[in-house]
Specification:
The complex is a heterodimer of chains A (422) and B (173). Chain A has 422 residues and is of the alpha/beta class. Chain A has nine helices and 15 strands. Chain A is globular, with a radius of gyration of 23 Å. Chain B contains six helices and one strand. The chains are: A alpha/beta (422), B mainly alpha (173). The interface between A and B is large, with 77 and 58 residues.
């Protein structure tokens, strides 16, 4: 095993030193063993900046991995961290740190709890004197940011869990605040899939790691050092300073590409080696669920039963009572809480037209929240949240709440085009 | 009183630090930017104004960005073309954000991704792609609240999504 690891790392290092200029298309419909590599971006990233992080990973590794492992597929995806506005995004980080410090190992608070606190505060804020208003507004912002952080974390966990259940290895490359979200996912999934999910943290603001995680933080990363002055943060562990001459890092020594992933930096070499050894060591999980052109995953809270319903383009209604459709299959029906339920259409079998995705709150004793994630073979995934006030039993089966639509059509070249909409 | 203070103080401190770290253009290289105007107000003609910029030569790129691109690469038609492609993609994002159009935002993101692949191809390095792309984005947004607002909305439309596999065989148009 050690020889295999050394050979893999050596071959990878040899090939990775030269950025490839070749084009690599990813086949999301391949049956080959698949590794999903996610770039989880940090705070304040526009989609352009976050996308550049993903493209950087593609250009650094895709061709090399394809050469060394021709029988495997490597998907490079962006998990785009919610970006609301600059103030709220920073408050979100603070909120994540406070939760991390106070309750690192306990189960997470649901977004609904923060939402209830937020609404209560809004309703009573006029009772406070005017001088207290700035503090009230700050707490409101804090709670609002916590809501988005919780929703974002749960969406990430759902996506990675689906990948793992579909037999894919999952490797997270997280930068800055992305480490906080990736940490949540590792905490939730690394016990169940210890050898199949891993994380490489870059410029990590976290104070601890879960499962098979490593991190690289420069000694002179000014953003992390500033955070360290306020909160406990993992020690820095990389001397990334190239000296006075030839230092092309950004002012903060913190940005992903400029300050960590540039080919001249020590951190880049460490990330290359780490990624190469993980590709050798990580284990493909058992494939529990099918995957294909369209996959829909439903999760919810502790109430016993929420059901996934799909109306296929020809009107066929796929649900727990009719699990095989004209095009796809419901291959997992859960009746004990949390989910997931899972529907998929194999590649090449997706009929043109509109698929309607619905949920029915079948059995439970209080309000519940459903989270529906729809992935298509063009590499995109969207998450929808649906509040469910009361259960309807089998009476709701004929009229499930429609959460989203998937339009499948052909473009001028005959390629399938997917539009997922609410 | 103690708890709100505990929450407020770190927020204010961290905000100032992050503003210091990221707010000054995010890059030392930004200081190397070749100068350009930002207003798109040369020969303003109302008919070419689309709400966010003028496009007097009707090439699909706002005039202020056109000028920036030509100033930056006066002798390289190849780089000018790559940057114009990226500029059009960013503009698509602005229009999509302004309209609050989810499908248009998806198309804008795919165009931005393609533009980044093209810039990588033209500059030959990850660092080159990052520098050119970042400077162009800063150029598009600086001093224009309308573009900023629409562009922020564009990013918000895409927030929380997962994206991949947009690589084109020939990313440069």
């Amino acid at each position: 095993m050690k020889v295999k690891l050394l050979c893999g790392v050596f071959a990878f290092a040899l090939l990775a030193v030269c950025p490839n200029t070749g084009q690599t298309s990813v086949d999301f419909c391949s049956n080959a063993k698949t590794t999903a590599i996610y770039f989880v971006n940090g705070v304040w990233n526009t989609v352009d900046q976050a996308e550049m992080g993903r493209v950087a990973l593609v250009k650094a590794y895709a061709e090399t991995l394809k050469t060394i492992y021709p029988d495997q597929v490597f998907e490079f995806k962006l998990a785009y961290n919610y970006h609301v506005d600059k103030v709220r995004d920073v408050i979100e980080v603070i909120g994540q740190k406070i939760v991390e410090i106070n309750a690192p190992q306990v189960s997470r608070t649901s977004p609904e709890v923060y939402f209830a606190m937020y609404m209560s505060l809004r309703n009573v804020q006029l009772l406070f004197p005017p001088e207290a208003q700035p503090i009230i507004l700050t707490i409101e912002e804090f709670l609002a940011a916590r809501i988005t952080a919780e929703v974002n974390s749960s969406a990430l966990i759902q996506k990675y869990e689906t990948d793992l259940l579909e037999g894919k290895r999952v490797l997270l490359v997280a930068h800055s605040q992305g480490n906080m979200f990736a940490n949540d996912a590792m905490a939730a999934l690394s016990n169940e899939f210890p050898q199949s999910i891993g994380m490489i943290g870059v410029a990590s603001p976290a104070k601890l790691l879960y499962g098979d995680s490593t991190y690289y933080t420069a000694h002179d990363d000014r953003v992390i050092n500033a955070l360290r002055a306020l909160f406990p943060v993992l020690d820095s562990n990389v001397d990334n300073d190239p000296g006075i001459f030839g230092d092309h890092r950004d002012f903060s020594n913190h940005q992903f590409i400029e300050s960590y992933f540039s080919s001249k930096l020590v951190s880049r070499r460490l990330i290359d080696e780490d990624l190469a050894s993980r590709i050798v060591d990580m284990v493909f999980p058992y494939t529990y669920l099918g995957s294909g052109a369209i996959t829909v995953t439903l999760t919810w809270g502790a109430e016993p039963d929420v059901d996934l319903h799909i109306f296929e383009p020809d009107g066929n209604h796929v649900y727990y009572w009719n699990m095989t459709g004209s095009f796809g299959y419901l291959d997992l029906d859960d009746v004990t809480g949390f989910g997931p339920e899972h529907y998929y259409v194999p590649c090449g079998s997706d009929g043109l037209g509109t698929y309607q995705v619905g949920v029915n709150y079948y059995r439970g004793y209080g309000p519940e929240t459903a989270q529906i994630q729809i992935s298509t073979s063009d590499g995109k995934t969207r998450t929808f949240i649906q509040d469910l006030s009361e259960s309807h039993g089998s009476a709701g089966d004929s009229r499930p709440y429609i959460v989203a639509f998937i339009d499948v059509s052909l473009d001028a070249d005959g390629k399938r085009v997917y539009v997922v909409r609410q | 009183m103690k708890k709100p203070l505990l929450i407020c103080l770190p927020i204010v401190l961290l905000l100032s630090i992050v503003l210091l770290g990221c707010g000054f253009g995010g890059s030392k290289k930004a200081t190397n930017t070749k100068t350009t105007n930002t207003g798109g107000t040369n020969n303003p003609s109302q008919s070419t104004y689309d709400g966010f910029g003028y496009d007097d030569d009707a090439n699909g790129v706002w005039d202020d960005l056109d000028k920036y691109i030509v100033d930056r690469y006066p002798d390289s038609a190849v780089m000018q073309s790559a940057l114009r492609q990226k500029a059009k993609a960013l503009q698509t994002g602005v229009y999509a954000g302004n309209a609050g159009d989810d499908s248009a935002a998806q198309a804008g993101r795919a165009a931005i991704s393609k533009g980044n692949y093209c810039l990588f191809e033209r500059t030959g390095s990850i660092e080159g792609m990052y520098e050119e792309s970042s400077l162009l984005e800063v150029e598009m947004l600086k001093g224009d609240p309308n573009r900023n607002k629409a562009y922020q909305n564009f990013n918000a439309l895409l927030s929380g999504g997962f994206y991949g596999s947009d690589q084109e065989e020939n990313p440069c148009e």
